[in-house]
Design goal:
Blueprint: E1 5-6, E2 9-10, H1 11-50, H2 61-87, H3 93-112
Antiparallel strand pairs: 1-2
Length: 130
Amino acid sequence: MDTFTTNAHPIHYNLKIRERFTLKKYGIGFFIVAILFLSTVNVSINEVSAEGFNKDVKLTVEQIDEMAKLQQKALEQKVEIIHKYVEFGVFTEAKGEKIIRHIEEHYKELADNDFIPNWDKHKRHGKHSD
């Protein structure tokens, strides 16, 4: 036998037990640090997204027209990009059409809201707006 044994257990067996204990200890510590970090990042993201948005603003007719033109250009570019992805085989025809419908629905929602984004609609899953 090439390994030294004590109490009928080889030394490498005892080392493996110590290694597993150390990995568990550090693994649990890493997990706790990761949870704490992610919880603070989530709070920071929520604070930033809620900050700086004034939902009481009403755009003038000229501003609405300008935003409509910009959003229409953006819509056309996004649709063109999706068509290229379909052409290159990245998306199937059905997937491309589904994405385009979603983009067009988003444009319609913006137009219905005078091109002011509705950020509060994303506050779901137990989060309440102030």
